[in-house]
Here is the input.
Amino acid sequence: MKLWRRKCLAALGLALLVASVQAASLPIIRVSMGSGALDVEVASNKAERSLGLMNRTAMPESRGMLFVYPAPAYFCMWMKNTKIPLSVAFVDAQGRVINIEDMAPQTEQNHCTQRNATYALEANQGWFARHGVTAGTQIIGLEKAPQGQY
Here is the structure.
């Protein structure tokens, strides 16, 4: 039993280390919209977008993650292995919010853009509503993000 417990603790420690290394390795940019601003980690390639905010247990109120796609497309997000409630804003190539969806932790329900998007911006659930961000809101600062890669 003690060996099993040590293995579980070691696995948990490794998962936390991987998550913190991932967070440290992504570029961070500041974007603003409505009455607020977020410092966002930028996931610009397929591996980074696939991992997203998985396995994190908390995120500061002024932080988020920006997913950058190489070309406008219809896509969906889900919350498998994501432990914090999030809201996602799907954003077009001109930086305008298309639609916003609230997402429950650790679910596999798809949350999709209503039309082709270039970005998905995740923040703590309710952040967009608290800052007056709705469909049509312009997001400032996206030009600082690296280009999306396949």
Remarks:
- The chain has a mean pLDDT of 89.
